[in-house]
Each structure stands twice: as C-alpha cells, then as structure tokens.
Design a protein that fits this description.
Ribosomal Protein S4 Delta 41, Chain A, domain 1; 5-stranded antiparallel sheet; 38% helix; 208 residues
C-alpha cells in the first residue's frame, strides 16, 4: 500500500496556504504558516523572489495541492480521474466528490479523526466497521446508507478527536457522537466542499 511520507508542513509552505495536515497544530502559533515562522517556500531558494509559473506549472501545483490535502498518490489520483471521465455530469465535480467519498476522508469530515492521516491509520489497522464488516482500505468509497462504526479498542482515540473537533459536520453526514456512528445520508454537492481546489485546472492537466 502506497503512503505519503515526509514533513507535511513543507507542503503547506510550498502551496503558500494552510492545508490543515497536522490537526490541532495548524490552529496554534506553532503552525509553519504563521507570520512569526517560516512562511516562505521550502528549499534553499525559498526566501528569494518567487518565479512566475507557466500555465503547466499552475496546473501541476494545483494537482500537487490536491494530493497533499487528500493524502493520495499520483496513481490513485489518475484512477479517480479516469472514473470521473466516464461518469455523467461535470468531470471535475465528480472527481472531487469521489475523493470526498473515501473512507479516510469521511472519518475526518465527521470529526472522528484529527487528520486524514490519522483516519487512514485507524482504517488500515482494522478498527473501522462499515455495515457489518471490517474495512481496512482507506480508499474504500462509501455508499448512500452506509453506517460506519468503530471497534472498542479505538474508541478512546475517537472520543479525543471529537473533543478537539474544530469544524462543523457536513450536512451529507449524520453523526452520532455518543454512539460514535456515521450514517451516509447522501453524496456531497460541489458548493458544500470547502477544499481550496480549482478542479478545472486538474481536468486541464490530465486532458493535455
């Protein structure tokens, strides 16, 4: 199983915006994007004048940002795009909705994990149940009507994440904090997604 490794704060600095990859740290003064810290691109040339990007560079950086947010690799990203191309409707919107349907993203959106990376670890260690069966693939795409629960051994970690939840739960999810359950009411719509991504640029990148 492929993994995204390396210091994640560098990825926020590279995109020059908070991607919220470090959980609660991103809301404190320790965040690398705060004015008192290294709020410039990583690397030895980070403090020099920013080079103007080409059209290709703009599209490439948008793709890299999306992969950093969702914690996926190029192969996975391209597969979602190919699925989106064959579906009805807008390719870009379908692409983002597929990413939102990933099980690791659903746990994060529900506030049951502090980051998508933490959610991914919960799932791959076999602590998450969808319906009546264990699912250990973070890339599992949830369906309408799915009920997500947790095994007893992980519930203390989930309870801690709930207590530190920063964002409101999206309307397409029904969350029961006491029972630690998530019910998938429907799929999200584009206007409900708060990801800072211009999907049109990614469609153009893969369509070149």
């Amino acid at each position: 199983m492929g993994r995204v490794i390396g210091p994640v704060c560098r990825r926020c600095r590279r995109e020059n915006q908070k991607l919220y990859l470090k959980g609660t740290r991103c809301y404190t003064e320790k965040c690398s994007m705060e004015a008192t810290r290294k709020n410039y691109p990583p690397g030895q040339h980070g403090t020099t004048a920013v080079i103007k990007l080409s059209d290709y560079g703009i599209r490439f950086r948008e793709l890299q940002k999306l992969k950093a947010i969702y914690g996926i690799l190029e192969r996975q990203c391209k597969r979602y795009f190919e699925i989106s191309k064959k579906a009805k409707g807008s390719t870009g919107e379908t692409f983002l909705i597929l990413l939102e349907r990933r099980l690791d993203n659903v746990l994060y959106r529900a506030g049951f994990a502090l980051t998508r990376k933490q959610a991914r670890q919960m799932i791959s260690h076999g602590h998450v149940i969808v319906g009546k069966r264990k699912v250990d693939r973070p890339s599992y795409l949830v369906k309408i009507g799915d009920v997500i629960q947790f095994k007893d051994g992980i519930k203390s970690l989930v309870k801690n994440a709930i207590s530190l939840r920063r964002n409101s739960v999206p309307a397409w999810l029904e969350v029961n904090d006491e029972e630690m359950k998530i019910h998938i009411n429907r799929f999200p719509e584009r206007q409900e997604l708060d990801v800072p991504i211009n999907e049109r640029l990614i469609v153009e990148y893969y369509s070149k």
